[in-house]
Specification:
Elements: H1 16-33, H2 36-51, E1 55-59, E2 63-66, H3 67-70, H4 72-89, H5 94-122, E3 124-130, E4 133-142, H6 144-165
Antiparallel strand pairs: 1-2, 1-4, 3-4
Helix pairs in contact: 2-4, 2-6, 4-5, 5-6
Length: about 170
């Protein structure tokens, strides 16, 4: 049976490029709707999540380990920070907004603390003593991604503090 003349034409299927463009526009408008400190917190937290794709740890056995494998709790805490920023941007009521700001600050602080504790935790070496000399052999060390992750986590924490007072 054919299509009736007065019916609406079927909606054209959107291409993947159009869908990606729409998603990017939605993300851009969401980011523009945030306050200055929330932008800083969201941006630095998003960078922290990107830093998890870099190598964070070197070991003798495994060579380089990416941050998501080595420091997966940081990913959970950073995701929590972004989630609380998103919930606050959806215009929560005043009592709930204060709790969400505290939760954002808490997850940012936990991400910073864990990333800061990650650095000394990965520095492992074994010392050999003999004939009056000591030789230390590195068993594992942090890599550049861990240091950049710490910078991003600290930036998110410092941006979350003024956002608490807004």
């Amino acid at each position: 049976m054919g299509r009736r003349y007065l019916e609406e034409p079927p909606a054209a299927a959107r291409s993947a490029v159009d869908q990606a463009r729409k998603a990017a526009n939605d993300l851009g408008s969401f980011f523009r709707s945030l306050g200055v400190w929330d932008r800083w917190a969201a941006g630095s937290t998003a960078l922290l999540l990107l830093m998890l794709a870099l190598p964070w740890r070197w070991t003798r056995e495994d060579d380089e380990i990416i941050g998501l494998v080595a420091a997966w709790p940081v990913a959970l805490m950073a995701g929590g920070t972004l989630f609380f920023i998103y919930l606050r941007a959806r215009k929560a009521d005043l009592v709930q907004d204060r709790r969400l700001r505290l939760a954002q600050l808490g997850t940012s602080a936990l991400a910073t603390i864990f990333t800061g504790l990650f650095l000394p935790w990965t520095m492992q070496s074994h010392a050999f003593r003999g004939a009056g000399h000591t030789v230390a052999i590195a068993l594992s060390t942090p890599l550049g991604g861990a240091y950049l992750g710490l910078v991003c986590a600290a930036a998110a924490l410092f941006a979350s503090v003024p956002a608490l007072k807004e």
